[in-house]
Task: inverse folding
DNA sequence: AATTTAATGTGTCGTAAGTACATATTTATT
DNA sequence: AATAAATATGTACTTACGACACATTAAATT
């Protein structure tokens, strides 16, 4: 480093006091996907900020000094859905200077998959609701961008990894599964080709039961093979 | 929320004072890949921490209050390589409580690709050097985990997206390209099948020139079609 | 100048997967 | 008993993948 560079560097360091580096808050935001009524949905809460009156936001919170990222995410999931042990996957970290009106907040985003019907949300006491992903146009903060990013990631993963089953009850028919794929991908699939493709993957077991609550010829029921029940698609490197 | 839950929650909030939330530092770490001598390399610096004496670490720095994540990454790249306009891609954010010995630091990691030969590193004045990725066993902090995660991401992207060309000079032969793929993927490829696969992708133009510095029959030279020169593989959603 | 050496450049065949497409069967409903 | 609606299934065509061999070209050697 030349002397000139050194002087510049020193001035720069003095300008930015050490404490300022800690004047950034860190949050976690969770895109919680569910599936119901043949639609992909996401769990949102009414924003309590004036700037975003009438808009919805993702579920998130500041990270506490004594918890790591996954712990913070699971805390949010537990608080909002009452469920532990959900599928969770980190997607991206957003940190634009102006993304939060009240100061610098960097947020680490995750998506999570949950079987809506199988649990009881605590939907009563606040403005927490499931919203069809396709109908969401505007959100608080940069949350629409986060939602789009997470949906894109989900779409990428869904044909390669057996993650989609976290959105379904334990037993399901091939029709239900196909409808779910279509809801996520946003286009129709050919029924025969879809079945062939799924059968090649060898993810399912035929449990020798039939649907019994449908107003038409019932289909066979299947389960995901237990060895594919993972809580994240990410390879563990440690 | 029951009264009991409410009391617990309140106690919890009191315990963790608001200011503590800002007692977390945020850094960016860059895995800067290069390619030379038929090996994939990564740019590392000797750790200046006593705890990690003799070990190397990635290039990173705390994020300044007035810069966003990409700006911080590009600042690091510019400081360390003298180059702007490099390929850069966010990979993952690491935030274990104990990942940094001197306090809580959450780090957002990126990988970057650079053509080693085409630029002059400021390698002189510090312990900054290229290291063959395969020979790195132990690193400071959790940097080996970060390196492995970034390498895995690079390996995933390399056959799907035209990113690898950021590691090569503008003009290259198919042999050079194949050797680079092999260095990244870690296994050999069949020459004829490789050429077929590349030609299907239609990424390259034959520029009607030949190699002239090889001690054997020279091969044709190719360029990446300009429409594929991107600085990130990530889809822009905004 | 002739020979040797080493890398370039190219094609086929078998297998696996992707796509388009139609009919018989089963159950609930009328 | 007849109808309606969904399930279950197979074939032919095309496209991608993987294994594999030989003629050609230029440099290096003799």
Result:
């Amino acid at each position: 480093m030349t002397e000139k560079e050194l002087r510049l560097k020193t001035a720069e360091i003095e300008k930015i006091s050490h404490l300022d580096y800690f004047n950034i808050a860190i949050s976690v935001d969770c895109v919680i996907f569910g599936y119901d009524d043949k639609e992909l949905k996401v769990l949102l809460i009414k924003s309590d900020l004036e700037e975003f009156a009438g808009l919805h936001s993702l579920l998130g919170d500041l990270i506490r000094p004594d918890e790591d990222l996954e712990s913070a995410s699971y805390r949010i999931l537990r608080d909002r859905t009452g469920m532990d042990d959900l599928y969770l996957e980190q997607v991206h970290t957003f940190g634009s200077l102006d993304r939060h009106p009240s100061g610098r907040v960097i947020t680490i985003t995750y998506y999570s998959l949950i079987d809506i019907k199988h649990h009881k949300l605590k939907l009563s006491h606040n403005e927490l609701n499931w919203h069809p992903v396709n109908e969401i146009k505007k959100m608080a903060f940069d949350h629409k961008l986060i939602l789009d990013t997470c949906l894109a990631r989900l779409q990428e993963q869904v044909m390669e990894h057996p993650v989609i089953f976290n959105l379904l009850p334990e037993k399901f028919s091939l029709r239900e599964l196909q409808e779910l794929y279509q809801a996520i991908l946003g286009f129709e699939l050919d029924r025969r080709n879809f079945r062939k493709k799924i059968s090649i993957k060898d993810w399912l077991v035929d449990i020798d039961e039939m649907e019994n609550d449908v107003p038409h010829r019932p289909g066979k029921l299947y389960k995901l093979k237990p060895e594919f029940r993972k809580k994240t698609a990410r390879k563990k490197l440690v």
